[in-house]
Specification:
Length: 831
């Protein structure tokens, strides 16, 4: 048995032997009856009065599986003492239930337990999502299987079914056939929920391109009856029309058949040297848990459902805090949810900002467990939409914008943690530093730790920020149990956050630095291992080339880090040449993204480890989706593998076009280069280039700044770098008392922002900015009056503080923003 991360061989035989001996000894001692409490507070009214657990393992089974499944709503209605075999929730004797459960579980690989796979196929899921029930059951069994405290989960590699590549069909690239076959049904019967601004997927969008893009992954061109569009009607009874689900499903299948009936099969070139074929949905081995530390998770959101308006808590700790998603949101492929701002949809209706909120009753779980432990970790993978939003709640357990137990929020480029304890005020933020600019508009791993000993800590991408909590550690005994858990906003909807959350978890113990680093390295999102069989090509049993594969976005796949391994522990490769490896999809080699076309490596025992295999490359690549993850078929091709060779003929290079140089005189207007921009900002503000914060920012964004003066080479990314430089210079300027007095004489920075800019205060800021930053006598720039108007409007907007009470340092912040707006404009960039 191979396991990953760090593939290792392990056995539970010794543990099973001890259990068997314990059962034997218990059987010799007779039985007694003992009333035991049901340790699951949400499992209903079932009270156990049968014989006590005969071993510790039976007690562990009761605590983690029996208690959670015994209710009528889950498995008790059918698999109790008088029900169907297996009676694994026998309410009269937990020892008999334990024996029955052992016939349908796999403690070495819980996800492959018959109990789990049965529910995955649609058997009695107690939620609206089979995948959520599968995750919860897997967690129950995993907790029963146990493991050492603080252990990392592993992923077991299993051989997939072998099949030859080829004979596949791809859906049309254009929307023509779709618009006359499947789309009319979707438009007529699904637009009430799945049109623009409704629930994802937008398969009934008024935009035919959007509808087709969203429907592709739900259409199986090889087997239309297995299309998700058909199965949702036939098996899930989802929104059937005319109250006849079978007839609705049959009509949908007919329309899909009309869409695909004339499509041609794409056979694989017989001269190619190919591996066996795989599909992501059928053959992919989920790799998400490998290496993660999750022993103390009490709430977990991985957003696997991909549709609907519920984000399920799959922690396995009851009661589950399932979140209702509302407002402007969109599911993200490969797990995630994107929260958007308030605005109008295409029909002109106002949609509030997105959020996902749990009930106050279920959220009490956090109060109960965390006040008992006195510590916690909040872990999330987030991608902020921008670095300009303030007071934006990412994750909060609160009652309103001003009452909370704990909140993780964004303020510009700061992560902030607001937290209630016996030693801290609930509305005083502990945050990362402005100068560090740790919050970026990209995918980041964030962990907030709290213990009475260390107070609050923030980790970004596995690294502690080293910010020191100004408050001493305290107890959580003052937490309010009437609050609700919310993602992406506040309970009152007044603090929306824009961005994507790919995963969120709450632990009832603080993670260690090593565990945080490990969880960061594992990554996030739906990932798979694809095991491409090459045994027939090299003559070694159970031999595979393995890739880590994920959906990069809604339109592409990411293949990464291939390695060779045999699942037969006795195999050792010897002097096997591997050259020119390429990816194939749906019968053809992918036209782009062939990162391993020049691979030239030897599979040999000196580089091969029986536990972890032999790495082939650290490269990754992106290839386009065609039919979606349910239907796209992948395979590998090789120019040489072992004794098998393909004589590849490289296509001739296309002739290079003759440059067409313009006749006109080059523009007299150019760009300042990176060093000129830095020097200009220094002279304009009076802040030396050696200032530590300025220097650090410059070194970070230097490669993003212009390197040549040709204005035709200007990129939007260069403007973003210039903006960051301007923000840093203006921050240093306004934070220095002497420099700001020299720049803005007569302006009183101690006056609150709502009055500081009245009675000529605004001109005391704008006039110096114009005189120091803006050139004079130039015909190719806006007039001073236009710049003054724009900056004045900016000040008027910022001093309102979004309708909330302004912070004490708001006046300084407004001056910094006004300064950066002018300094970071074309007045600095263009020469």
């Amino acid at each position: 048995m191979n396991t990953f991360k760090g593939i290792s061989v392990n056995s539970r035989r010794s543990a099973f032997a001890l259990i068997a001996i314990a059962l034997l000894l218990a059987a010799c001692g007779g039985e007694s009856t003992e009333q035991l409490p049901n340790t699951n507070p949400n499992s209903g009214t079932v009270t156990y009065n049968g014989p006590p657990p005969s071993t510790d393992d039976v007690a562990n089974f009761k605590r983690n599986v029996w208690d959670n499944l015994v209710t009528q709503a889950k498995c008790g209605a059918c698999h109790g003492s008088d029900g169907q075999t297996p009676t694994f929730v026998n309410e009269q004797d937990v020892n008999l239930a334990y024996a029955q459960a052992n016939t349908i579980v796999n403690l070495s690989d819980p996800s492959q337990s018959e109990m789990v796979t049965k529910v995955a196929g649609g058997h009695n899921c107690w939620l609206t999502s089979n995948s959520a029930c599968v995750d919860i059951l897997t967690t129950y069994i995993s907790n029963w299987a146990g493991g050492s405290e603080g252990s990392a989960k592993t992923v077991e590699l299993r051989a997939p079914a072998l099949k030859e590549p080829g004979a596949t069909v791809s859906l049309p690239s254009d929307t023509g056939l779709f618009s006359t076959t499947v789309y009319p049904l979707l438009e007529e019967y699904c637009s009430e929920c799945h049109a623009d601004g409704g629930q994802t997927p937008y398969i009934a969008s008024a935009n035919i391109e959007t509808a087709y893009d969203q429907a592709k992954s739900r259409i199986d061109p090889m087997n239309p009856k297995s299309s998700r569009l058909v199965e949702r009607l036939e098996f899930d009874y989802h929104n059937c029309w005319n109250d006849n689900c079978l007839a609705s499903a049959a009509l949908m299948e007919t329309k899909i058949l009309e869409l695909v009936q004339d499509l041609q099969f794409q056979d694989v070139d017989e001269s190619l040297v190919t591996s066996k074929a795989l599909t992501l949905s059928a053959d992919g081995l989920e790799a998400n848990s490998g290496g993660r530390y999750e022993d103390n998770i009490i709430a977990l959101y991985e957003f696997k459902t991909g549709e609907g308006q519920t984000a399920f808590d799959t922690s396995g700790v009851s009661p589950e805090i399932d979140l209702t998603i509302s407002g402007n949101f969109e599911w993200v492929n490969a797990w995630g949810i994107n929260f958007g701002p308030e605005g109008e949809n295409e029909q002109g209706f106002m949609i509030p900002a997105g959020k996902a909120q749990g009930s106050t009753t279920a959220s009490q779980k956090l109060h109960t467990i965390l006040t008992a432990s006195g510590e916690y970790s909040i872990e999330a993978w987030v991608a902020p939409a921008n670095i300009s939003q303030e007071d934006a709640r990412i994750i909060t357990y609160s009652g309103s914008s001003t009452t909370r137990n704990v909140t993780l929020s964004q303020s510009l480029q700061r992560y902030e943690v607001l937290h209630r304890s016996t030693t801290s005020d609930e509305n005083t933020p502990f945050s990362t530093q402005d100068a560090d600019m740790l919050l970026q508009a990209t995918l980041q791993h964030i962990v907030v730790n709290y213990t009475p000993a260390t107070g609050r800590q923030i980790f970004v991408n596995g690294v502690p920020t080293d910010d020191v909590d100004p408050d001493n550690g305290g107890l959580l005994t003052e937490w309010d149990d009437s609050f609700a858990l919310v993602l992406g906003n506040e309970t009152d909807g007044q603090s929306p956050w824009q961005g994507t959350i790919r995963m969120a978890a709450i632990h009832n113990r603080a993670l260690t630095s090593e565990q945080i680093q490990a969880n960061f390295e594992v990554g996030v999102g739906q990932k798979f291992y694809l095991l491409f069989s090459v045994s027939d090509l090299i003559g070694l049993p159970q031999s595979f080339i393995v890739f880590e594969v994920s959906e990069f976005d809604n339109h592409a796949y990411r293949f990464a880090s291939p390695f060779f391994i045999s699942l037969d522990g006795s195999v050792e490769p010897s002097d096997i040449t591997l050259q020119g490896m390429r990816l194939g999809i749906n019968g053809n080699e992918a036209t782009v993204g062939q990162a391993w076309a020049n691979l030239n490596i030897v599979l040999d025992s000196e580089a091969y480890d029986p536990g972890t295999g032999q790495p082939l490359s650290r490269l990754a690549t992106i290839i386009a989706q065609e039919n979606g993850a349910e239907n796209d078929e992948f395979f590998l091709t090789f120019d040489k593998l072992g004794n098998n060779t393909f004589a590849r003929t490289e296509p001739e290079e296309l002739p290079q076009p003759t440059p067409d140089y313009p006749d006109e005189t080059p523009s007299a207007i150019g760009l300042k280069t990176f060093d000129e921009i830095n020097e200009s900002m220094s002279r304009m503000t009076g802040v030396p280039t050696t200032n530590s914060a300025v220097s650090a920012t410059y070194n970070t964004v230097k490669q993003q700044l212009p390197t040549v003066e040709n204005i035709q080479g200007f990129l939007s990314s260069q403007q973003m770098a210039i903006t960051q430089m301007a923000i840093q210079y203006c921050d240093a300027l306004v934070s220095n008392t002497q420099l700001r007095m020299d720049m803005f004489p007569g302006f009183d920075f101690s006056v609150p922002s709502n009055t500081a800019f009245d009675h000529g205060g605004k001109s005391l800021i704008i006039a110096p900015l114009l005189s120091h930053f803006v050139g004079s006598g130039l015909n190719s720039q806006p007039s001073d009056s236009k710049i003054e108007t724009v900056v004045g409007e900016l000040i008027d907007t910022l001093k309102l503080c979004g309708g909330n009470e302004c912070a004490i340092d708001r006046t300084e912040t407004i001056v910094k923003a006004s300064c950066a707006a002018v300094l970071g404009s074309a007045t600095t960039l263009v020469q």
